[in-house]
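Rotation project, supervised by the postdoc (A.L.). Task for the rotation student: set up a whole-complex structure prediction and record inputs and outputs verbatim in this book. Inputs entered:
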Amino acid sequence: MKSIFQTLPQVILAEFDSAHSLVSAAKKLREAGYTKYDSHSPFPVHGMDDAMGLKRSPLGYVVGVMGFTGMIGMIALTYWTSAVDYRFVISGKPYFSWQAFVPVIFAITVLFSALGAFFGMLAFNQLPRLFHPVFNSEKFSRVTDGGFFISVQADDPLYDRGKVISFLESIGGRNVEVVDADEK
Amino acid sequence: MNVSAKELSDSSTQREILVLGNPTFEKITEAVSRIVEGKPTRWWYALFSISVLLTIMLFANLVYLFWEGTGIWGLNNPVGWGWAIVNFVFWVGIGHAGTLISAILFLLRQRWRTSINRFAEAMTIFAVICALLFPAIHVGRVWVLYWVFPLPNQMGMWPNFRSPLLWDTFAVGTYFTCSLLFWYVGLVPDLATLRDRAKARIKKILYGLFALGWRGGNRQWRHYELSYLVLAGVSTPLVLSVHSIVSTDFATSLLPGWHTTIFPPYFVAGAIFSGFAMVMTLSLIARKVFKLEDIITTKTLERMNKIILVTGLMVGYAYSMEFFIAWYSGNDYERFAFINRAFGPYAWAYWIMVSCNVIVPQLFWFKRLRTSIPVMFIASIFVNIGMWFERFVIVVTLSRDYLPSSWDYYSPTIYDIMLLVGSFGLFFTLFLLFLRYLPMVAMSEVKGVLPQADPHYNHGEGG
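Outputs recorded:
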């Protein structure tokens, strides 16, 4: 996994008018064979995953594994503490009175699933990553306001500065801009 | 403001208009961010000063409590549980509406929730903080609080996982953590907005750190959206489980009036009822003070009032069913406990509870009343009061147990009262800080429900 300090040398940014034009632009980039590009928007745009040809996020498996680990771990803990290490008869129940342990086992299952959903999301998104070349663009700050952008990264196998610029302009991108990582 | 749903729908996408005035994305950003970026109003300073003073009073009280012990409270022998558990159940219950709005309404695709979910979630977190305070301090010897956690210790002992009081630790602890994660995940794109708008260096650094370097790329959104969905999914059972587990503190005991199977659903309905009332109170104030009438619309408030009406009816049903079962069971102790509740020494508290929780919400049958801001504000405050009294009525059932010779009347001391008032101070201090430094409306979500966010939206070109 990339560290938060490692970065890309260069990114080409183009601005689009609306969610609608962003989706069709992303589709054209995919059809042209680009792979290291992204479409940036202030909110998740419906249908963008299909346009970019992205599969469903694998986060669900992380959550499932984490939840299962929490459940097994808590069953083991309640068993070991109540039936092995510290045996006490409490209100006449068996040592391993699992029915009474269900609430805590459930709580820990949920807790681990939630932690999996949170940290799994950060890991897949490689966050926190406080620096990225796109932040060197003045206009890019509009992406968290009302702007729509496409970025093509320098590590794309088809990357050729001139071709990418003219391609982005041909699919309706405005203010096409080359952003270097070491700017400023 | 009575516009029908038909008029309120966009012709090109058939989506209901949820934000009035057809704003652009930039207007949403501006309307929400300006609250955080501008100078706070005099109202904010006034409320914040009072809240901070009350919080200081709370901490001073805690110091005295730790020094002197729980003897400073009004506890007596039959009533071994006093206001500490009343306040605990009250505050945990408040939190539930926030989770219902953020999680269950999200799964049910109730898109009107976007205008209120952020501060309903904030309310949940702060309410749970206040709630956690009371079980922590009621143990008396707070320095051995770590005994509730399964930590290896020098005594070679482990906690008793069969105890509902231990279930509470796990249920409420999980609830707090999940609510915090859910809230924070929702905040990340909006923190990025504040980061990008920030002028001062310190704000740039702080918002930048907490925004984690969010770039709004679709390769991020796709994991983000699933993460949000999963957090909503795991929070949903918590809405039902946490207060059910809290109710087992009472229901697993063998006391008449407590030992009933109706307790878990009855507590959950009451929790949602009281929480919605609190969301209503807070959103009416915030809407007025920060001029957010176009985002938190009357339509949204009316929908919340309908939920208050429905859950209020459930609570009323539970009250009557408790009485019916007490009579139907033929158990003398059970019958006595309920007759004593309604006509005994605490009849005043019982009838406050019934008036506030059952009679007041009936106003919302009428459209004119449930769309009237003053009516819903006053009604929501009555419901808050009534739901506190509900927990009080349940707890003081203890005052008349099996043996008449041990009966005693419970009344709180000044320290009990100061702790309750102080917990409100803590709650409002945290809430006002939240309003001041974080976006109180989920901007990225509100933008997502605007008609022009739909990729099929025909932007004014002959559509």
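Student's summary: Residues 59-124 of chain A form one domain.
Supervisor addendum: The mean pLDDT of chain A is 86.
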